[in-house]
Amino acid sequence: MQLYNTLSAKERATLIEQAGKERLTISFYKYAKIENPEIFRNHLFLTWDKLDVLGRIYVAYEGINAQLSVPADNFNQFKYHLDTISFLENVRLNIAIEHDNFSFLKLKVKVRDKIVADGLNDDTFDVTNRGIHVEAEQFNELIDDPNVVLVDMRNHYESEIGHFKNAVTPDVDTFRESLDLIEADLKEHKEDKKLVMYCTGGIRCEKASAYYKHKGFKNVYQLEGGIINYVRQVEAKGLENKFIGKNFVFDERRSERISEDVIAHCHQCGEPADLHTNCANEACHLLFIQCDDCKEKMENCCSSHCQEIIQLTFEEQKALRKGQGNSNDIFKKGRADHLPYKKDLRNIFDVFKKSE
Ligand SMILES: [Zn+2]
Ligand SMILES: [Zn+2]
């Protein structure tokens, strides 16, 4: 029984290209009590591998968080299988706006402690006691209310390229930091203000809303299905789009363009740009924003130091990396002192100073 991937990303990309079939990029999550995550994980892998499903899926005692690429031809079978799992019957599937057959190149189903790294102790509050879910239309009305504080629950590199107008975008590296900062800044307003939050697909708000209710906030709302679902609804119902820029996503595509506004800047020259890249130096892999000119000039590197290193042979580079540990993390925080146009606002954070 084959329970793990055997093809490399490159081999997979070739196969997808040869097949020439359309694939859908889908995400979903569900908090549910899973008695044996390992058995559940194996069941998912075996079933989905047969359907040529690819993606990154986390399974834990607390539920499942999945980002997938599914062949359009197999979608009905995939959906049928989901519906056979009691807690996933009719689960909301967020389908990506932009098509890309190469959004995922492997099927990785992993057992984790948590389905979102939240740094919280689960026993302290009830995750199911969450905020009021609002759909796009109601969300649009709600955020016009002057008594609302609209908070982006994502990290700095996500909100930097796109966010809702008038949202507070904490300059944080982790979800955990955000939770504390927002609570501290709003501690006088737990009862009078309406706290409205959003994230990419809704999963982070699921936790955050329950957490803030536990902390005494009386009016907590969350955007149902996150930005992905919001944009779908805006298109389907012809609503006003209040999201500017791009939606950062956690697959090979990196982002989806939602509006034509380019709200970020190249971290190297300061020109308008909103495309994230990873430094070409394998030992660095810093995630940062780079414009096309700098990309060419710097050969996709974050610094001249990294640029020097990529001129070395593969063996020389490997020798240099020895003992440095694995930094091959494509979503590394994206902060570096040598990037002159990466604003670091952590010390002057003020939750009521709204973003432009
Ligand atoms: Zn540039
Ligand atoms: Zn670098």
From TrEMBL:
Keyword Transferase listed: yes
Protein name: tRNA uridine(34) hydroxylase
Residue ranges constituting the Rhodanese domain according to the UniProt record: 144-239
Keywords assigned by UniProt, alphabetized: Oxidoreductase, Transferase, tRNA processing
Lineage: Bacteria, Pseudomonadati, Bacteroidota, Flavobacteriia, Flavobacteriales
Protein's job: Catalyzes oxygen-dependent 5-hydroxyuridine (ho5U) modification at position 34 in tRNAs, the first step in 5-carboxymethoxyuridine (cmo5U) biosynthesis. May be part of an alternate pathway, which is able to bypass cmo5U biogenesis in a subset of tRNAs under aerobic conditions.
Molecular-function GO terms, alphabetical: oxidoreductase activity, acting on paired donors, with incorporation or reduction of molecular oxygen; transferase activity
Similarity section: Belongs to the TrhO family.
Recorded name of the encoding gene: trhO
Species annotation: Formosa maritima
Enzyme class name: oxidoreductase
Family matches, as PROSITE patterns: RHODANESE_3
Enzymatic reactions: uridine(34) in tRNA + AH2 + O2 = 5-hydroxyuridine(34) in tRNA + A + H2O
InterPro entries per record: Rhodanese-like_dom (IPR001763), Rhodanese-like_dom_sf (IPR036873), Rhodanese_C (IPR022111), TrhO (IPR020936), TRHO_N (IPR040503)
